[in-house]
Amino acid sequence: MLCLKSSIEKGRGSVPVHLNVYDLTSMNGYAYWFGLGVYHSGVQVHGVEYAFGAHEHPTTGIFEGEPKQCDGFTFRKSILIGWTDMTPGEVRGMMEELAEKYRGDAYNLITKNCNHFCDDACIKLTGNPIPSWVNRLARIGLLCHCIIPVSLNATKVGHHKIEDKACAAVEKKLRSRSRRYSSNSSTGSSSSSSCSLR
Description:
Family: Belongs to the DeSI family.
Largest sheet: 5 strands, antiparallel
Region (Disordered): 175-198
Helix content: 10-25%
Structural class: alpha+beta
Domain PPPDE: 15-152
GO molecular function: deubiquitinase activity
């Protein structure tokens, strides 16, 4: 890909931090080579992958799971972001701090998605941001709301709360928040009366 980040120098820390990137749509097979695509991502550290997803409750949207195994998404690649000296307990504490900002009911594909979460977590862990291509479409979407399909605005991911030890299956559903779009598509109407992803 033409948008590669320069090589990471081993700086502070001895524990590697990876960004695991997943495809949300099969169109990424083509769009990836142009530095575009719709991606889900998670931060892998100490053998655990942390990610952020939407749900209807005012509780954390951060969940943890097996690295490179997020159900409902197609794994694309793992990218070394840097190193950390944080212990597993310190990482968990940092995730609990981020939980205030990343509530499940605050998820928005354009302004607060899984890639925004991963960027914040990677900066706190390593001092390095995620590669810009991972969340480029959301930044473009701020300029033109018509670029991202409305149906992708509310990607729902079931999750393990970071304070829970119980292991539940992670699930994914795509759901449109726009009732107008749903009613137009169900009646076969081809007109597009709204491009907003509110």
